[in-house]
Amino acid sequence: MSAALQRLCDGARSLDLDLATDAAQRMLDYLALLRKWNRAYNLTAVTNTDAQVAAHLLDSLSIAPFINGDSVADVGSGAGLPGIPLALAQPQKRFTLIDSRAKRTRFLREAVRVLALENVTIVQDRVEDYRPPERFATVVARAFAALPKMLDLSGHLLAEGGEIVAMKGRDPSAEVDAIPAQWRVIAVEGLSVPGLTAQRHVVRVVRTR
Question: What residue spans of 15-133 are helical by DSSP H?
Fold first, then answer.
């Protein structure tokens, strides 16, 4: 087992995730593809493998316990974070990765092909313009927008009884206080991501009407 694979598997265990070795290896294959495409497409500022394991993979996996239902939308997916790591860790769920930039969706489609991700669909569209055939049980976002704006742009994607799961860095209290009245925050939780010293939080939101 390579050192990177060991760090990933150990980190997943510390997050209380039972990550299959095959899934972990495919996550590292995803990072290798990301580094290859990054030279031309500038998809990420984090280029060191060890740093990517923590900042991209384990950070994405830290919200796995909050993914409810079988259908998940990753809005403003960018390079596929958190959608691709979550799809590899939870193959029984269906993930739709949405981004408006052509170069990003080209990379995402190649990642889906190379990694044989049968549970992932790529959509090139503005989040606010996308009208899915069926709405999603969970909508996730990482570094997409401030919480009130995220709810405004992507709230229509959420199925009745569904949940918004927003990944945040430092204390998101100001964003939480500014959400519209038709939304309710059910939890704000600090996350401890192995290998990261930066603060991480997850905000969980449901619709009130």
Answer: 21-41, 49-52, 59-61, 83-89, 102-115
First to last CA, the chain: 50
Q: Per the structure block, which two tokens stand in for 167?
A: 């990944």
Number of domains in the chain: 1
Closest CA to 142 of 169, 118, 178: 169
The pTM assigned to this predicted structure is 0.96
Q: Answer yes or no: are the C-beta atoms of 63 and 161 closer than 8 Å.
A: no
Convert the pLDDT of each residue in 14-43 to its tens digit: 999 999 999 999 999 999 999 999 988 989
* Structure-token match 């996308």, residue found: 130
Q: Which domain holds residue 156?
A: 3-207
pLDDT tens readout for residues 58-108:
999 999 999 999 999 999 999 999 999 999 999 999 999 999 999 999 999
Contact present, 135 and 157 (Cβ < 8 Å): yes
User: Is the dihedral angle over the CA atoms 193, 201, 164, 105 positive or is it negative?
Assistant: negative
Contact 105, 124 (CB under 8 A): yes
Which residues are paired to 205 by β-bridges? 164, 185
> What are the structure tokens assigned to 62, written together?
């830290």
